[in-house]
Amino acid sequence: MHIALVGYMFGDGGIQTHTDTLAQGLAQKGHEVKVITPAEMANHKGDPITANGYEIIVQSGLKDALGGFGLRGWAEAMVVAGTGWNSMIGTLRSGPNCRKIFFEVMSGKPGGAKDPRRLVHLGFDAIVGQGKPVEDRFCKEFKWNGPRCTIAALPGELALPQVNETPPAGDKPLRFAHFGRLARHKNVSLLVEQWDAYGEGATLDIWGGGEDADHLKDLIAQKGLGDQIKLKGRYPSGDAYSQLLTEYDLTLLPTIGEEGAPLVLLESMACGVPFVANGVGGIPDYTNQDCSVTSKGIDEFMPLLQEMIARIRTQGINRPRIQNFYANTFSPSVLTDRWEAYLSEQVALN
Predict the structure, then answer these.
(1) How far apart are CA 280 and CA 296, in angstroms?
(2) 156-171: b or e for each residue (b if 16 or more CB lie within 10 Å)?
(3) N or C: which end of the chain has fewer CB within 10 A?
(4) pTM given for the model
């Protein structure tokens, strides 16, 4: 197949990771893949992703979009991840023999009357949500009644570390971590504010940077928690990231934002580390017997954390089972197969 993926390819982020990993996977299966990216954005600068087995085309604006990114007659399927007027217009102009698919990687919530995602009604053939709640919300909010399905976004390729079952911790100190951008909607302050009540016998490392870092630093100092909660800054990538994750007993994501389905939770499972997360966006799709996801809002988060601590202390952690759930459900190879099968079905409809 001739497949075009439209997504931003500068810096770090879920769209970049998904698009790069899927493009590589499809190319390795023998498909011709081109990735169309907007030019580097002033508010999201970063190094360009290096193409591996596929071609990256940087679109220069509306003129390129009106020309279908130069892919009219070539592309058999075009998948747009994220939003942007030019990305949507360029896909619509990709020609009558190209299946046009929108991949909702956000929460499905509209961004106002001028949200470019409303262009799906002008000629897109199908939408894919990265989680079932995301798919349902998108279809409701944008009044989409056409073909729809759920396929998760791809995480990056991680070398799965060797993991073993962890015996009950008893009274041993526990190590928790939060990985991700430090924005107010990530709600990391909840952990600091309620640490005295729920964090006894544990430490918390907060990895990442962002606009909420200074606020968290001040809050930690005000509460005298500097020995128990530490801001660690930027976290590594690749094998070093995998090894770092395995050092923890639990990862925490108390986000209250309009999330899609954060890849950090997949990465945690890939390393056999359980998590507690607030069930917004597509996060409920990650639920399994070894991890906890709220079902009724953020007020459940800290009590679920307390229950998880008790479980780790009395039952231990079945790390191989967590890793196997990831490998059989959300690994790049499994999800690439799902995307390939889906795109083959779509192309057959041309």
Answers:
(1) 10
(2) bbbeeeebeebeebee
(3) C
(4) 0.91
What does the H/E/C string look like for 41-63?
ECCECCCECCCCCCEEEEECCHH
CATH number of the domain bearing residue 268: 3.40.50.2000
Same domain, 303 and 336: no
Report the candidate in 64, 87, 72 with the shortest Cα–Cα distance to residue 9: 87
User: Both tokens of residue 156?
Assistant: 């990056």
CA distance 1 to 31: 5
Question: What's the domain count of the chain?
Answer: 2
Residue 307 structure tokens: 């229950």
CA distances from 119 to 84, 125, 138, 315 (A): 10, 12, 13, 51
Per-residue pLDDT tens digits of the chain, which is 350 residues long: 999 999 999 988 889 999 999 999 999 999 999 999 998 887 777 889 999 999 999 998 899 999 999 999 999 999 999 779 999 999 999 999 999 999 999 999 998 889 999 999 999 999 999 999 999 999 999 999 999 999 999 998 888 899 999 999 999 999 999 999 999 999 999 999 999 999 989 999 999 999 999 999 999 999 999 999 999 999 998 889 999 999 999 999 999 988 888 889 999 999 999 999 999 999 999 999 999 999 989 999 999 999 999 999 999 999 999 999 999 999 999 999 999 999 999 999 98
| Structural domain span for residue 58 | 2-155+331-348
| Coil/strand/helix, residue 130 | coil
Q: Which residues touch 221 (CB under 8 Å, ≥6 apart)?
A: none
Type of residue numbered 53: G
Is the domain of 94 the same as that of 190? Answer: no
What does the alpha-carbon distance between residue 76 and residue 26 come to, in Å, rounded to a whole number?
14
DSSP state of 20: H
My answer on whether 137 and 187 are in the same domain is no
CA angle 4, 157, 270 (to 5 degrees): 130
Residue 165 near residue 144, CB atoms below 8 Å: no
Number of Cβ within a 10 Å radius of residue 77: 24
